[in-house]
Amino acid sequence: MTIINLNKVKDLYYMNLIYELNKTKDKLDLFEKKYSKDFLAFEKDMNGAKKEEFEKWDNYMEWKAFYKTYKMLLAEKRDFDEGNIRVTE
Length: 89
Description:
This protein has three helices and no strands.
């Protein structure tokens, strides 16, 4: 029989959350460096663009996904840090 300590599980989950958060932030940083602006400024430019540029559009879609994921992970980390978690079976 294997016994799993609940606190160890929480620690592992939190470490994975931090890893995913940092990995996603690194992707956001790459796009910010490439376009010399943050996502919201880039999105505004894309919405106002008169000419379609496929590479920019592809980057926009990928960047948007990373941006949403980052926001979700930040909220999850905030919940975890504030103790707003529940472990279920």
